[in-house]
Design brief:
Elements (H helix, E strand, L loop, with lengths): L1 E6 L7 E4 L24 H5 L1 H10 L6 E11 L16 E11 L2 H4 L2 H16 L6 E12 L13 E14 L2 H20 L5
Parallel strand pairs: 1-5, 2-5
Antiparallel strand pairs: 3-4, 4-6, 5-6
Helix pairs in contact: 2-5, 4-5
């Protein structure tokens, strides 16, 4: 499985305002770290058991991490450059992203902690089973506040970092891509469950 990590702190790079809520009020941040049972309130976790297990592992009481957002999708738009290590360009890909952040406020502002996390996750995923998939961990900029009500104004937020994990599975059919994605998510779940306090 192709695995890499990178840093993107550019204006166009990934960002997280935490806690978050969408402007229309349809979706909002659900803190799984303090009450794991609310994982059932996350539609993606209900629909995709593999993602549910990843969310539970990242938010486990013994984990130094927690999650902020996630999403899942499938497509037949596969760019040759994104899967150069495979023998042929697959017809389908299935993927997800999960935002990972440290629970400890002091670590949220530490670039070196996020850099170490990215390296550790890549090493652990790379040591796992090989599946036709890819995982990328990107260190991005995060804006932290005490309540969702304050998150609309970045002026009152502290600036820090987070890691977004992109996990993809590829295949000749939708079913193959979904199955390979599930295998890749299991490898990431195992890696995340091994992360300890830095």
């Amino acid at each position: 499985m192709h695995t890499e990590w990178s840093v993107d702190l550019t204006e166009d790079g990934p960002t997280l305002t935490f806690p978050w809520k969408d402007p229309e009020g349809r979706f909002r941040y659900v803190r799984l770290k303090t009450t794991l049972s609310v994982v059932e309130d996350v539609p993606e976790a209900r629909d995709y058991p593999e993602l549910r297990l990843l969310l539970l592992a990242a938010n486990a009481p013994e984990s130094p991490l927690e999650t902020a957002r996630c999403d899942v999708w499938g497509t037949d738009e596969v760019d040759e450059g994104e899967c150069w290590w495979l023998d042929e360009v697959p017809a389908y890909k299935f993927g997800c992203y999960v935002d990972l952040l440290f629970s400890a406020p002091n670590l949220r502002e530490s670039f070196s902690a996020h850099e170490s996390l990215g390296r550790e996750l890549v090493d652990r995923v790379g040591a796992g089973p090989d599946v036709p998939g890819s995982v990328e961990f990107i260190v991005g900029r995060a804006y932290y506040c005490d309540s969702p009500a304050e998150s609309s104004s970045r002026g009152s937020l502290s600036i820090g970092f987070y890691v977004v994990a992109y996990v993809f599975g590829y295949g000749a059919s939708v079913e193959d891509a979904r199955r390979n994605w599930a295998g890749a998510v299991r490898v990431v779940t195992d890696a995340v469950s091994q992360v300890k306090v830095l």
